[in-house]
Amino acid sequence: MAATEATVMEKIVSLCKRRGFVFQSSEIYGGLGSVWDYGPLGVALKKNVKDRWWRAMVQARDDIEGLDAAILMHPKVWEASGHVAGFTDPLVDCRTCKSRFRADKIQESNCPQKPSKRPGEHTTCDLTEPRLFNLMFKTFMGPVEEQAAVVFLRPETAQGIYVNYLNVLQASRQKVPFGIAQIGKAFRNEITPGNFIFRTREFEQMEMQFFVEPGTDQEWFERWRQWRMQWHRDLGLTESRLRWHEHGEGELAHYAKAAYDIEYEFPFGWNEIEGVHNRTDFDLQRHQEHSGKKLEWFDQASGKRFLPYIVETSAGADRVTLTVLVDAYREEIVEGETRVVLGFHPTVAPIKAAVLPLMKKEGMPEVADQLYRALRARVPAFYDDSGAIGRRYRRQDEAGTPFCFTVDSETMADRTVTVRERDSMQQERISIDQVPAWVTERLAGSAAG
Ligand code: ATP
Questions:
Q1: Within 13 Å and on the Cβ side, how many CA atoms surround 25?
Q2: Which residues span the domain enclosing 118?
Q3: What is the pTM for the complete model shown?
């Protein structure tokens, strides 16, 4: 049975807290607005998402290099990129209730005094004119808090790639066309954050910038569109909940020639999870102008000198992790009881295998412990000997563990264990000695993308 859409997010948020996927930041102090912490299962889930991305984008390709640029950058980077002047949202304040709204999202917001109305529609509302609000977090470098010492927390990882593009080219001996990939934190002082980890003020991006010869940019753009959509499908996301959204004239960023978002149908509606953009040579032009350094590429084979065009693929690691959680969440009625399952793709599941001794006697815990140790040498595994076996299976279902191995009295007689599969709940017996290889094989079989 599908969970009802109205409450599914509340259920996921509550499951995430209870099982240690995601906690509110600084919760004992009342929390910090739209900042979240990942608990033991969450950090493993998000890491698996990032690892899959890195494997597909860097490890499996010979035309993309990795990078880890610093969060703090020279302040001129943000002048060149246009973020100081233009990374703004229009903001309106209500003088009565002191709330703030994005002027362009008023029609999707509610008046805090009268939630059935939009801001501005209630008799006591008193809205200001829209003002532009810069979303970059500022801080100071060094001991003196003065204008000259202002630096920003990066609002995107892309700029670290642009300013390093020649370094990477020279160090790696790549040739255009080639790409640079990076996973890292970004910060945006969002005015209306929300929807759990969908829109937060501190988040992680998985960005790749592909440098190409002008004139070949649309071809590469189309290729990257296909590859990125396939990556999300390979993650196991439901096909019918993925779609493209093309940026129309009014929506296109000033630097973009073409832009498409990959959208996912969340319980709160269709929303962007990744953007694929043809950024032309805007970024390199600007950095060339502002730094005074030539950023052209000389192609020895053709004798051409040019400033490469850039095709960008930009996904949020937290947003994709939320997508994976939402897509995996289901409730089923089994023998009159509700079973909550996170049906993760096995390669992103935080725990791959659990080992459960049926009873805490007759040597079962010792045998189970040996199996657990053999398993965890290969994959993240979990040992659980407390409570009825049915309840232990349910706990693993909620954590999204694909395989459970139960050690029982038969094991003691013939060295076989029960494998219980999360999705089908089917059980079969296999030799205990084969278990680690069985798990590795099953995971390898599902590791596309
Ligand atoms: P939105 O329209 O949702 O604000 P955007 O168009 O500003 O997003 P980009 O600047 O293209 O987003 O960022 C690329 C990706 O980074 C997004 O697709 C999203 O996955 C992620 N991202 C952007 N802002 C946030 C945020 N505040 N919290 C979490 N992830 C984010």
A1: 12
A2: 88-134
A3: 0.93
